[in-house]
Design a protein that fits this description.
Elements: H1 3-15, H2 23-48, E1 59-69, E2 93-95, E3 101-105, H3 112-127, E4 134-135, H4 159-175, E5 185-190, H5 193-202, H6 209-227, H7 230-235, E6 240-242, E7 254-257, E8 260-262, H8 291-301, H9 307-312, E9 315-316, E10 319-320, E11 338-341, H10 350-357, E12 361-367, H11 379-394, H12 402-418, E13 425-427, E14 433-435, H13 436-446, H14 448-455, H15 462-475, H16 481-491, H17 496-512, H18 518-541, H19 546-554, H20 556-563
Antiparallel strand pairs: 1-3, 1-4, 1-5, 2-3, 5-12, 6-8, 7-8, 9-10, 11-12, 13-14
Helix pairs in contact: 2-11, 5-6, 6-11, 8-10, 11-14, 11-15, 13-15, 14-15
Amino acid sequence: MHSREFRTVSICRRDGHNPHVRPDRRKRRSILLGMYQSSEQRILDLRFNGARGLLRQSRKGLEKESLRVTADGTISRQPHPRALGSALTHPWITTDYSEALLEFITPPFTATEQTLDFLAEVHRFVYHNLDDELLWATSMPCIVGGDASIPIADYGRSNVGWMKHVYRRGLDWRYGRAMQAISGIHFNYSFGDEFLQALQAADRSTTDFIAFRSDAYFGLIRNFQRYGWIIPFLFGASPAVCKSFTGGQDCHFREFDEATFYEPHGTSLRMSDIGYKNKAQAGLSVSYNDLDSYVSSLTRAISTPDPEYERIGTRVDGEWRQLNTNILQIENEYYGFVRPKAVAHSGEKPTLALRRAGVEYVEIRALDLNPFVPVGVDARTLRFLEILLLFCLLQRSPPIDPRELGRINCNQGLVARQGRDPDLRLYRADGRKVPLRHWAEELMQALAGPAELLDQLRDGTPYADALRASHAMVRDPELTPSARVLAEMRDREENFIEFAMRVSTGHQRHFLGQPLDPELRERFETAARQSSAEQTAIEAADDIPFEEYLDRYFTQDQAHQTEG
């Protein structure tokens, strides 16, 4: 639906009926208004019950991954730098799958600027302790010399550290290491309890608050699955990949040059079938219809043996291959687009934390690294995400049945590979197909109310500005990061590795050109020393064999049921 038609929608809202509009268009606009009416009504309720300023209590944090890479564009084989402390226990600097895959974690802040400032501080400290290595600026990896070139992360000799390492061995046996070298940014977001209580009051709900909060977050999650394809469309930045990543197999890609595969209209190969949406988990169905269904479906997956994984074995000739032979070793193996989260106690399984505390925040896992931003993400992107999350919270969110789930997964795959194709059509929940551009225009209109609500009691209109910037990319997809990546590669006659190396080197100069403030240096050096001491203490305190430790971890469910 075009922008001119939206202006007519606004007139129809005021006048009720416009005789000059053709009946078919009037019907289409009526359907549109009905689709998003629930969010608009709840926005009106929140405006008039004094809740408009409570959104300022929302908290946001980031987890950002980046490969350590050598000057020749290959993955570093060096151990985790000692100056960065312990990857097992450091609160802000750890590793993900690989010893070379750094992960930076910010605390949750109420201001977007604070979150990004902290992330920049982490980058600055790390760069001043990396010697000649680079942080790879793109989601898709650098030159991959087979699985052996990707070292699995080492977390020391403790039981908990060894469990993390063996889990990663299992990922290698199950999926290979190349997929695990992909980088992304996770956005952790929570609404303030006072805002959710105001929403509960507006809904006239008498449900227990913890249960209401969990239901509200699961409604958000279902809607994010329905509408979240807009994120890779707008902010995907991985339309190309080094041929070494696929071992030279074309995977139905186009050839950009002798070293690079690409998709002409691709947005996020990271989120495609060669990335996190891999075929190995395609048949795994996890329900997001409510907390009990989610926990039950995940629990089944981590307790049900898989014949293929049984053939791999758990411990063979004295060497650990994986934690177990079940469909999932642990909950985190499931690569969801979005996850419900609760803050877990030490050693507590994520599903048990959810049962104990309910959903406390959501983890959005749909963002590529933006190579045009030194820290990989900017304020406008995070603000648009916040607008979308508020919309997803307020919009009516019916349960997702298997047929709709199949359409959701199809949409995500289509956008990842073909998102900028002007003829691309996506599936509505009812199976109807609609042009992506029309649906995106609808969403931009529907997001105006949430953006306005977020701008209440703030200086300026930062959320409305972020929405306008995103709307401009809907109207002209050549403005998106994915299109800009391919345009620069063409204009500069660069292959993917040359492009990523140039951008990564530029980010290195950016951070090394900023002096390391003495207070910042002391704060991070203290955290590194404390984390190393904490790892030593954990290792010294271990008093049971690893097998017993694992058994206790995986029988928490039984202990929980006994206590209940």
